[in-house]
């Protein structure tokens, strides 16, 4: 029997769950499909987020032939068969999974077929295509990021699969508890495939109760998904509460609390939330008080992504402990938010003439860059001149705190430069 996730694969663009930034009405892939002006593309993102589904739906909506190959395991001969089919019957949509593993021989064969449009390539990868995919392929494709599904989107897809009698589990008398549905929707970290497979396993391995219903409880879904609902409560908000408590514990320098909340997130399998939140914390809450700690956090996160769980807990624990005991400062985020406030409220002003681009003929006649003073031509590589627009000439966004020796040096230097700047205009 084909897995539920396979059977419930969307047949048209309208059936796709999530990814509305790409397939929603008026969005790029929706426009391509409606105009039948498809271009080759690379879809990248975590597993189970809909890369194959999008490719299948594009084929279903356009009625083009659809073929699936794997760049790592399928041969050049398999690509030749697809190319021959395209020549005989017209355009073929080729989903090439693990496209980051495409070798040069297969790539060289594919390129001319992409150029003439016989094959519409949809590459799927979990790797960053800007780093791991050959520029020759990249230059001939559009790159779209596929994002983890939101819990509400997974919940909608699970309910649809339970009710669907032709492709889903509709022939079974399933009753699913609300807390079980929330658990499978939130603990799969945006991976719809995992959610559907867990629900199918639960439904087909659970016998009917006295009412002849297949009753899916939280305990059954936990067993089938092999994750415990450590970050949930009856209201379904605790997952985000734990993430919030994690950041606030580090901000408040409570090492043990921070490790506790990270352990809850890791035990639920939510490595990505930990990684993302740690990067935010490092630069938002520690920032200029301890830049080396920020750099080491990036290194720890990179290591964690490479090794995965359970080993990822080791570099992440080191980073959390260091961030907790580090001096704190939010002067960086405060500074940029102060600047953004001015921009968003219309306090912009024109760029001073001496700072404008002067690398074109006629720029001097317009006064562009004429009076610019090149700082490296002056003592200490600095000279007073106006950089802000006239209407913002006295703006001061950076409120240096001096919460560490390093930040105190930044504060003193900033204030000294600001004073000298103001005294010379």
From TrEMBL:
Keywords (A to Z) from UniProt: ATP-binding, Nucleotide-binding
Pfam families: AAA, AAA_assoc_2, MgsA_C
GO BP annotation list: DNA synthesis involved in DNA repair; DNA-templated DNA replication
InterPro entries (alphabetical): AAA+_ATPase (IPR003593), AAA_assoc_2 (IPR032423), AAA_ATPase_RarA/MGS1/WRNIP1 (IPR051314), ATPase_AAA_core (IPR003959), DNA_pol3_clamp-load_cplx_C (IPR008921), MgsA_C (IPR021886), P-loop_NTPase (IPR027417)
Gene Ontology MF annotations: ATP binding; ATP hydrolysis activity; DNA binding; enzyme activator activity; single-stranded DNA helicase activity
Domain spans labelled AAA+ ATPase: 37-149
Family to which this protein belongs: Belongs to the AAA ATPase family. RarA/MGS1/WRNIP1 subfamily.
PANTHER family given in the database record: ATPASE WRNIP1, WERNER HELICASE-INTERACTING PROTEIN 1 FAMILY MEMBER
Full protein name: Replication-associated recombination protein A
Native species: Pediococcus pentosaceus (strain ATCC 25745 / CCUG 21536 / LMG 10740 / 183-1w)
């Amino acid at each position: 029997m084909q897995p539920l996730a396979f059977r419930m694969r969307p047949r048209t663009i309208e059936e796709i769950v999530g990814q509305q930034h790409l397939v929603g009405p008026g969005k790029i892939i929706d426009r391509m499909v409606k105009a039948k002006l498809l271009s080759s593309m690379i879809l990248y993102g975590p597993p189970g987020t809909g890369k194959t589904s999008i490719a299948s739906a594009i084929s279903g909506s356009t009625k083009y032939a659809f073929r699936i190959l794997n760049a790592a395991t399928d041969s050049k001969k398999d690509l030749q068969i697809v190319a021959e089919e395209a020549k005989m019957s017209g355009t073929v949509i080729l989903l090439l999974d693990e496209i980051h593993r495409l070798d040069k021989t297969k790539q060289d064969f594919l390129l001319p077929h992409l150029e003439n449009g016989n094959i519409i390539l949809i590459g799927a990868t979990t790797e960053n295509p800007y780093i791991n995919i050959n520029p020759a392929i990249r230059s001939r494709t559009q790159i779209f990021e596929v994002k983890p599904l939101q819990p509400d989107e997974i919940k909608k897809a699970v309910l649809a699969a339970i009710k669907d009698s032709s492709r889903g589990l509709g022939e079974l008398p399933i009753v699913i508890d609300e807390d079980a549905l929330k658990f499978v929707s939130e603990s799969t970290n945006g991976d719809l495939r995992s959610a559907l497979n867990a629900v199918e396993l639960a439904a087909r391995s659970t016998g009917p109760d006295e009412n002849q219903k297949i009753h899916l409880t939280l305990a059954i879904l936990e067993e089938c998904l092999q994750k415990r609902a450590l970050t949930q409560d009856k209201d379904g908000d605790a997952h985000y509460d734990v993430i919030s408590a994690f950041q606030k514990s580090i901000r408040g320098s409570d090492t043990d609390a921070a490790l506790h909340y990270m352990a809850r997130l890791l035990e639920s399998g939510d490595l990505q939330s930990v990684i993302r939140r740690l990067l935010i914390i490092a630069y938002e809450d520690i920032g200029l008080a301890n830049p080396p700690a920020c750099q080491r956090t990036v290194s720890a996160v990179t290591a964690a992504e490479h090794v995965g769980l359970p080993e990822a807990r080791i570099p992440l624990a080191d980073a959390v402990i260091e961030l907790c005991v580090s001096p704190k400062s939010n002067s960086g985020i405060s500074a940029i938010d102060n600047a953004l406030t001015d921009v968003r409220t219309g306090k912009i002003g024109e760029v001073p003439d001496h700072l404008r681009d002067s690398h074109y003929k006629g720029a001097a006649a317009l006064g562009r860059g004429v009076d610019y003073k090149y700082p490296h031509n002056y003592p200490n590589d600095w000279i007073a001149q106006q950089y802000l627009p006239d209407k913002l000439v006295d703006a001061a966004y950076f409120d240096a705190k001096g919460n560490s020796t390093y930040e105190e040096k930044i504060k003193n230097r900033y204030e000294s430069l600001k004073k000298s700047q103001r005294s010379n205009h």
